[in-house]
Fold this sequence. Notes:
Low-confidence stretches: none
Structural class: mainly alpha
Strand content: under 5%
Helix content: over 70%
Number of helices: 23
Order of helices and strands: HHHHHHHHHHHHHHHHHHHHHHH
Number of strands: 0
Largest sheet: none
Amino acid sequence: MHAWVISGIFIAVFVCxxxxxxxxxxxxxxxxxMMLLYGWLFDFYSVQEAVDSVSFETLGLLLSMSMxxxxxxxxxxxxxxxxxxxxxxxxxxxxxxIIMTLATYVISSFMNNLAAMMxxxxxxxxxxxxxxxxxxxxxxxxxxxxxxGGASSxxxxxxxxxxxxxxxxxxxxxxxxxxxxxxxxLAVTLVVAQRKLPLSSWRNRATNVDRLLQLHESAQIDxxxxxxxxxxxxSVVVGFLLxxxxxVRPVWIAMIGxxxxxxxxxxxxxxxxxxxALYDVLFFFFLFMMVGGLVSVGxxxxxxxxxxxxxxxxxxxxxLFMVMAALVxxxxxxxxxxxxxxxxxxxxSSTLSTEYVWWALSLGVLAGSSATITGATAGPITxxxxxxxxxxxxxxxxxxxxxxKFGFYEYLSxxxxxxxxxxxxxxxxxxxxx
Length: 434
């Protein structure tokens, strides 16, 4: 009985989020409160248990990396990168598309991919406006590249921050376990794009490099501040590499970097709620409580038992676990899906005695988050940028007439086949590794 009620609350919350009936923070807050009240009433889920279910280390890592990203954003680092992309492309539009995709991957691998996309997407749209090309292919590739970049490192996206905290994994673990498959999947994405995306307006065309660079002449680029921001990033990354030697958790290294970043950005004088990513911090705070409610009624225990009793070997269980994570991510978004499966991964990693449980979870979430616009947190934000851009520049509508637009259903025709390809390659990776 209790399991049905708690499951109903969990499903109802995400149905409301999925069909946009309620703001996601409001929805998970109400869901967590309802679970707590019901658990307190029937004496199976206390406030202390709810607080214990929250991964404060993960939230601290998210908050700290958001602060560090704010330094580079304020310095104009992302605009500076955009200038370099255009210069190296020599005006060839297809090369602009490829280099922008690769730049998105690289930036997202060492910086929160949501923060990276919030600057890379407007930059890409500005380029498309000047070049007079359909922005949909670029946005679709950037979204997948940001997912891949985030998945390839410990701090690139929130799911991996959750995984790092739960699995007590270090930076080198992610480099060894996720970097190679992510790079392979990036190459696969560029190959698939040749067949699945409308690139006719991008092929065999060139434009004036000076004209493109004029886009950013008015941008404020603070090179000394960029150097300071990069120094902080490098110091934090080096700290991550030395955590075993220093005997500290990565979150403390990130918080030291965030302290220095705060002295530069001074968030209390600006939009501190956005700079500190407090919306996301609060969202995952209450989401962890909801997942704790599921654990308290044994729902995730049944899921573990189902995986273990299917008679599969280690590789088979990992692949099935990965596919389940991908399918759930289609509906829950990458962060919630990861939080949902963390208790399952903890048990599996103990019983199977392999760290590939964590890579299976990360690869599954990666595949699912790349399938739909709502699968990744950056997806709805990218769509919002695109819609405002098209409203502001109605002349761009003629360019996309008869071609693929950047919308929910249009993205599905690209994202779902890509998810299947990602799962196939990831399954091969697991079979070869375990």
